[in-house]
Amino acid sequence: IGVSPSLEITVGDFTYGETASATITLKQGNIPIDSKDIVVTVGGIRQTVTTNASGQATVDLSSLNAGDYRIVAEFAGDNNYPAASDNKGFRVNKALANVTVTVNNITYGEDAEVKITVTGAKGENLNGVALVNFYTEELYNVAIKNGMGSVNVSGLPANELGRLYAVQFEETEN
Q1: Other CB atoms within 10 Å distance of the CB of residue 118
Q2: Burial grade of 161 (CB within 10 A; 0-12, 13-18, 19 or more)
Q3: Backbone angles phi, psi at 148, to 5 degrees
Q4: Of 60, 66, 102, 107, which is the most exposed, with the fewest CB atoms less than 10 Å away?
Q5: Would the pTM of this model clear 0.90, i.e. be above it?
Q6: Any residues with CB less than 8 A from the CB of 26 and at least 6 apart, and which?
Q7: pLDDT of 80-124, one tens digit each?
């Protein structure tokens, strides 16, 4: 068995929906070690990657949901090199939701239907609650299911529909 190799993971935090990866580097001193299998575990999934001529292998992390993770890389060793391992923590941050609010013109005295559409960073329909605040300062909790929700608002005075103050989405997903 030869001199101990070093195995190093390079990974950083990213936001859900972004393209992201971790780089695994296997080397002996400054000399890269190529064509070696590295077992990588992240998010409960094990996969084997092989180092290239630069002693590096890349693991795609883009499919991970928002949350905190630990990535573990293990080189089992062979006739020339003893085993080596490394592990690093990283975070996949929640992405901002895309919120669209649609309100049609109404005649004085009619209820206004406020339609809310919410999609995620990858275009997926989200579920959660939208908090809608009008000029009346009354807060409406609107259930968002499969990316859609609506609320009827009554008692709006004439020429005031444009005074929708805020919509805040509290997501239950990424």
Answers
A1: 27
A2: middle
A3: -135, 150
A4: 107
A5: no
A6: 5, 6, 7, 32, 33, 36, 38, 51, 55, 56, 57, 75, 84
A7: 899 999 999 999 998 888 999 888 888 878 888 889 999 988 889
